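Input set for joint prediction.
Command: fold jointly, output tokens.
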Amino acid sequence: MLHIYCPYCEEHREEEEFHAKGEAHIARPADPDNTTDTEWGDYLYFRKNPRGLHHEMWVHALGCRKFFNVTRHTVTYEILETYKMGEQPTQGADA
Amino acid sequence: MSQKFRLTDGGRIDRDQPVRFTYRGKRYKGFKGDTLASAMLANGQNLVGRSFKYGRPRGIMAAGADEPNAILQLGATEATQVPNVRATQQEVFEGLVSDPVAGWPSVDFDLKSIAGTLGGKLMPVGFYYKTFMWPAKLWMTYEKFIRKAAGLGRSPLENDPDQYDKMNQYCDLLVVGAGPAGLMAALTAAKAGRRVILADEQAEMGGSLLSSDQQIDGQPAMQWAESVLADLSAMANVTLLPRATATGYHDHNFVTVVERRTEHLADQAPKGQVRNRLHRVRAGQVMLCTGAHERPLVYGNNDLPGCMVAGAVSTYIHRYAVRPGQVLALCTANDYGYQAAIDWHRAGGQVSVICDTRDNPTGELFQQAKALGISIKTGHGIVDVIGSKSVRGVVIAELADQGRRARPRTENVVADCVATSGGFSPVVHLSAHLGQKPIWNPDVLGFVPNPDCGLLSAGGVQGHYELDAVLSGATQAVAAAFDCSPIAVPAVATRHIDAPMGMFLIPHPAGTSQAPKQFVDYQNDVTASGIQLACREGFESIEHVKRYTALGFGTDQGKLSNINGVAIAAQAQGKSIADTGTTMFRPNYTPVAFGAVVGRDVGELFDPKRYTAMQPWHQANGAAFEDVGQWKRPWYFPKAGESMHDAVNREAKAVRTSVGILDASTLGKIDVQGPGAREFMNRVYTNGWAKLDVGKCRYGLMCGEDGMLFDDGVTACLGDNHFLMTTTTGGAARVYEWLELWAQTEWPDLEVYFNTVTDHWATCTISGPNARKVLEKVTDLDVSNEHFKFMDWKAAEVAGVPGRIFRISFTGETSFEINVPAHYGLHVWQALIDAGQEYDITPYGTETMHVLRAEKGFIIAGQDTDGSVHPYDLGMGWAVGMKKPFSFIGKRGMQRQDCVRENRKQLVGLKTKDPKFVLEEGAQAVFDTQAQIPMPMVGHVTSSYWSPNCERSIAMGVIKGGLTRMGESVFFPQKDGRVIEAEICSPVFFDPEGERQNG
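tokens >
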């Protein structure tokens, strides 16, 4: 069970308070109506599945209800950082 | 004296407190402080079971969690049955009832032993796989036999009467194991002001010191331990948890610790106490002071009752004052093994021989044994044991070629107990639970924790077995981790200890394949020759060898056997132990009762139940309830003698002919406010919200980005920047998180706030031609059709309570949904019931609600949709605002190639040709009944009811191209061979013009 630092509450809390929401930093296309089916399909369905550092979105569902991002190692489960929505990671390939 | 193996004095038992217990229906006596195993040994009862595969008699081997044989069934009553209890860990109490789990038909005579005596040819290694593979038909037969024969204990057939609970714990340092290392570590951290939890699986803390004759600070070692424990228990920042096993090491220093609070007291926990408590510990640091398990050596017939690991012999003598025999033969590959012979001798027993597999031992313990006049044979090993149900003697032989071969000349030596020590296996389990494989340390001949495992460790788990090194290592490790001072290490004599020998399988003069059975894993009857056979058959990876032979599979998870098994496999493959590696260690370290895992989350507390404010009325009026998520909703209100069918028919007719009342409080309600609220609604719903005036309501469809419907509901405009959204009962939480997701992550520029108000409001829905007349009686508001139009809402007092009335309809009748603050819900409900008396107002439940909405073709998201249905599939294109300026959620998705193709499954009405036949929900549809099997399926029924108002069956379903097939037939093949024909029609079966809801 992970121990997650909520960047809004500024405390570590148990994983049970959070929901995982999948890969982070997936921007909605600015003009959806003018995307191709392939582009829209990529946005909708295609996700990274790295062995290593991964940026993922979580929500403090049973706490402050804020969404935030986590840089987590998918093998060791180590959490290197958590950061607020709109901020950029400092760890990982796309940092 | 019945306890003929009990010593006259000594031990940590309380001779003033005798306890009586039964084993196999026979009564025995022991003392408080005994384990079941020590009490059985004291009574000379050392036949504890029959082996898994060969049915061989087995006795107690060890004195702790590593015990492979003494696995018993406990319980005085059916409800208190507990399988797989290790007798070596179970404290005896007055009235304890135990039985062997293995042995069929009985532990004295086991049919399988006949298979075993035929040289094991009937049950070779891999027997199970070979059996299961062919012939497949017989597998069911085999399984029954194997389950019965294997003897794995049984679950109780009645509910567990005991309570269990869980507790969350936080600390700076969790120390696992309260032996010398653990005590020293805990004291160091505690003195530095850290919050410390010290957990130990035994009743008494002290670990190896409990059975040690060494001195610390010039006192018996346990006096030092007792003074440390006294210090620790007086400190507010320390929690001591005896009888508590750390069973799993999980991510981010989360450790599950199972505390057995009452299993030592009685068959059933005393009233008001829990049997087990699961401590969920989140620790800053976790320190393993788990010590090491002694490995037995592997030799012929080494499973006869009376064969033990050497350290266990010392433990039984020192702690329990039990010397399990008269004449001991001992075989060791290291200095520590001698201790058992020294203890045996001092306890008045005879030691017939010590075989040391090493050629030139010189250590202090060797010298001590020699000085006692014990016969020591260096360069020798025990190769076989004589006896049928218990040990009568041993066969010893001289070893050659650095212990790889035994010379043919053997000698028989008398003994009734055999003790062996092949070295020590550090208890690294927790360090490996997250996948960090332990590292082979050739100096200590054991696997030690991987330095990357993230845990601190000290003492035996590191392969340090001398007290001075253990104590100083522990305090230094804590000091380094917490940047504090180490504490003074008490004075301990330094001993001269020789290097151990890497001896695992003692070679037999006849070679392993011709030798008597040499057991490696007792619990699974895995032999040395079986492992060698597996290697010859081509299994190379130790994980494969494990699975093929079942090595390490039992409830003991191979605590005694794994390293011997690895070593034998390594030798057979000509590899080193380091290269062979270990198998995975997984939680739990020892078996955990299901009760401890679930704690209080059983029965009434398994899942929260949610009730509306009107629950007392529903109950008083005989409602039958159905679960909708966690909500308990009235399903129907049967009158005396009515079936569900009767009640629903009556309720559904009453709504259409007079007036009905429904508790709709459970519908999800989300309050949406802010300058960006209206635009936000435009984006998350498919339809338009720009022009919805204050005081108006609108039905909205909510889709995912894939264009598929996932929720629906009516939203009211309360103010220019203020909306009240309703969701489906089950979808409320999901929708709420969905709204937050978009507001926070994609459109933070829209200022909008959400609050869940589901529980704040109670909702009474009155519906039917007389609904208005009822409402008029409880409010001063003008509720005429002229002043209060369909899809309007108004603030008003109802029965003296300020609330909101929504004129919306899920029945197709004139309908008002009256929302009042939840605490007034029951009052307003009762007022409506009273006011409706003259119209015979009829309470109705969810079933009637479903029938009524189906008569009108209204969908239920999640019943008529399944995540693959978009609004156009539902014939609800009218609720999609394709012209809205912002590309709302789902718009692009529902225009994908697959979403706009012909022949998608579309929602339609279905009228059976036989109006009395009610289709089954989920029934599969075909167009061509003559089609070849497998027939092409073209859709299925999503909703189906008997409609009392239409006086026929009605159904909805999704059918390929259904919207273009009006009037065509579709067929539903039935299980019994019948084929039901139905006509595709509009899903609106009742009042298609909608005159009634507008009236």
